[in-house]
Amino acid sequence: MDVQFDPFTLTYGLLMDENADKDCKENEWEFRSLNYDAGDTKIPEAIPLEPHEIDNWVERTTSMIKPPGLDLLLARHQRFGSQDIPSKWFPLRPARMRRVFRGLSLHEAFFDMRVLSAQAGGMNFYTSRNEKNEVTELNFLIRPAHSSHFQYSSNWSWAFTWNACTGRMTGFLDGMTDQDIDDLKLYLKSASPELGHPLMLPELLLSLIYKHLNVRIRIPAEQDYFAIERGAGISRVQSEGTVWDWSPERFQDSTKKANTFMTTLAYLQGRFPFARQLAERMAKTLKRLETEEFADSTIKERLITGRAKRAERLENWLYQFQTATNQVAS
User: Fold this and answer.
1) Which of 70, 118, 224, 265 is 20 to 30 A removed from 169 (C-alpha atoms)?
2) What is the DSSP-derived secondary structure letter of residue 104?
């Protein structure tokens, strides 16, 4: 039996094919490329790409022998941030999406997961092996849970493949804001020496998820709600009066904000557990890699380096996300 056999190969992307003329409009999307070598000391650049330049970029990227590092294609709808972007909208026509993914060795199950895991989130990890059962590639598909709210929506979907012979990772990142990209570039520079490890980029993105959920959503929402509590005289700290002193307009506005806060809590109650599950999956993958054999025998030595620190960091992430989950559930 073929060790690479996948019974679902012919079904990947059927959802993308259904309404391609309506949902796959390349001229409505923005693209960037990011190429970065492990050990580089400069902040990486995200270089704009025109749609017609993508195929040449993929060919150039994959035809050269490179050191450990990463080659990423970033896509974002032009109206992202001003309207909800349906998960069934794709940045390229189906045939071209498949060509790009095959060129970058990305797993095509992404096409369906990107649609089916909308709002809820999803993660699929795949392992490719040779006839000796040695690992040749690790594929990561990550669809963080999100909402359609313009302010809160991350709307991210990511596909990565780590090559076990070169230690280099290729990837497709969808739906990242300029701030997200700036954060990612700084993370990459900071983690540059370890970018040859298959879990380094996923771990950086885990940090990005944590920052998005806490700094941009939970903490500002809680601060606004605590201000309402103080104004209503029900806070444990010094109050600013009582609700009986409020005007009808202030009462109506505060009620609206309180209801919005409860909706935000409900949103976060689903998002933090997903992020914790992702950290848990990564920790299990790290443990599994200890027992795997690789086509390049030197790879295992690289993976052993810093293993204890990485395991400790992932354990820290598990506790951090659990603490955040407890906070929004209380």
Assistant:
1) 118
2) T
**Phi, psi for residue 269 in degrees, rounded to 5:** -65, -20
Per the CB < 8 A criterion, the answer to whether 183 and 154 are in contact is no
Cα dihedral across residues 61, 46, 87, 77: positive or negative:
negative
Name residue, tokens 């990242």. 176
**Helices and strands in the chain, H and E counts:** 11, 7
For the record, the structure tokens of 44 come out as 């990486």
Strand partners of residue 129: 135
Strands (E), the chain: 29-37, 47-49, 69-77, 122-129, 135-143, 157-163, 168-174
Strand order in the sheet with 135-143: 47-49, 29-37, 69-77, 168-174, 157-163, 135-143, 122-129
- Predicted pLDDT of residue 154: 58
User: Six-digit token pair at 321?
Assistant: 């996300």
Which mean pLDDT values do the consecutive 10-residue runs of the chain (330 residues) have? 79 90 93 97 96 96 92 94 84 96 97 84 92 94 71 77 95 92 96 95 93 88 84 67 80 86 85 92 95 86 87 95 87
- The helix (run of H) or strand (run of E) holding residue 236 is none
Strand partners, 32: 48, 74
Cβ(53)–Cβ(23) under 8 Å?
A: no
3-state secondary structure of 243: helix
Cα 325 to Cα 277: distance, rounded to the nearest angstrom: 12
What's the Cα-to-Cα distance from 320 to each of 210, 225, 240, 280, 315, rounded to whole Å? Answer: 9, 22, 33, 12, 9
Maximal CA-CA distance, the chain: 77
Between CA 151 and CA 154 the distance in angstroms is 9
Residues in CB range of 87: below 8 A, 6 or more apart: 114, 115, 118, 157
User: Looking up tokens 């079904």, which residue turns up?
Assistant: 11
Within 8 A by CB and 6+ apart from 107, the residues are 101, 124, 126, 139, 141, 159, 161
Neighbours of 296 (CB within 10 A): 16
